[in-house]
Amino acid sequence: MWNLVKELKVAAEDARPLQVSGALASQLVKELGRGAQPGAVRPGGRVEDAGVLVRVLGGAPTEEDERELRAARRARVPVVAVQTGAAFFDVPYVLATDVVPCRPGEGFPVAEIADAVAARLGEGGTGLAARVPLLREPVCRQLIETFSRQNGVVGAAVFVPGADFPILTLNQLRLVLRLAAAHGVEVDQQRVPEILATVGAAFGFRAVARQLLGAVPVAGWAVKGGIAYSGTRALGEAALRHFAAAATDNVGR
Predict the structure, then answer these.
(1) Which of 88, 128, 149, 177 reaches 20 to 30 Å from 216, CA-CA?
(2) Beta-ladder partners of 80
(3) Per-residue pLDDT reduced to its tens digit, 30-68
(4) Burial grade of 243 (CB within 10 A; 0-12, 13-18, 19 or more)
């Protein structure tokens, strides 16, 4: 657990920004940067220094677009492309799932862009989410879904009684700590009871799974997977509400 805490502290020290470039970048910076910490969302700059790049294309990709996208790929900087205009084109160096269409006259689809950024960053988006409020909800939703799926697979695949418990619990701890980090909540001695509650919840879900396995022995793998998935999701949703309230209280003070 403390290794996970140390890992998150290192991630929290990562000050790389969300960089927006291309057509109408300044307008999108304003929308993505509402309530963000100074410098967390910036227009332009060295792409190699960015935590994620949002490139706005004004139509067919230009040489400048391709040059920056290529530089981002070489630097292993995650990229989300926003394609404006009535026609849509293939974007080099960017997966189709990471391209967000922006139709003329409708403004930037900020929520869709935030969702795409969260999906692209995955677990690595917690540090940026703590500094950019607009990313917080989609990053946390992404974390909950990812860890729930992982535990669902583990619960269904591990047949040795009790062997899956350490893996499930570790993933649940990791999820709770990531959700805390995404809200800028530092985990210290005062937060230990919350972490212990996670372990207690994991024991509770395990007990429910045992009872259901006795009632449905034939499809036991499906029961275990379903309990692991739903239990992790329920835990994540509860932790999300808790840390969101804690972050709001801190802002209020």
Answers:
(1) 149
(2) 54
(3) 999 999 999 999 998 999 999 999 999 988 999 999 999
(4) buried
